[in-house]
Amino acid sequence: MTNHYGYIVFPTALGHCGLAWAERGIARLQLPSADAGETEKLIQKRLPSSSIAVPDTRAREVIAMVARYFDGEEIDFTPVELDLAGQERFFLDVYEVARHIGWGRTTTYGGIVKTLGLSMEKARDVGQAMAKNPVPLIIPCHRVLAAGGRLGGFSAPGGTNTKLRMLDLENAGRSRADDAQGSLF
What we know:
alpha/beta, two-stranded parallel sheet
C-alpha cells in the first residue's frame, strides 16, 4: 500500500517552502525557492503520491515554526514527528545524530561518523545521507560541513548560497569550524 501525502506551499521571508505530511508525521520539507510553482513541482517530483491539502494541526504548527525560523527566530525542530518510511537504516542513524545539532552550531561529516563510532571512510556516506535528507531544516543538514569547516555541498534550491544564508541567519557561519571538528556529544 502506498502512503498518500498531503502538501502545501507557503511563503517565508526567504521564499516559498513546501511541506508534505502523512498520518505518521512530516515526510518532506522543501526549502525556499523564489517561485511557488517551482516549490510545488519539487514536492510532487519527490512525493508523486501527494496532493495539495489543507494542513492538519500538526502540519500547521510546523509551517508556523518554519516561517518563524526564516524570520530569524531560534526554533527547536527536534519534537517534530517525522515519517521517514523507506529510508535505509544508516541514513536513519545519521539523521538522528544530525537532528541534535543545535541552533548556531555546526559539525562535519567526520564529526557525525565519530559520533556514530564508525570509521572515517563512512564520511562520504554521511554526505550522501545529507544530500538525500527529505526534511532539511527539521533534520538540519545545513549545519553539517565538510572537513576543515569547508562549506561542502547543498542540494536545496540556491545550493550553497542557501546554506550560507541559513548559517548566517543562525550566526553559525563558517567561523565555527573549530567546533565542527569534534563529535556532537
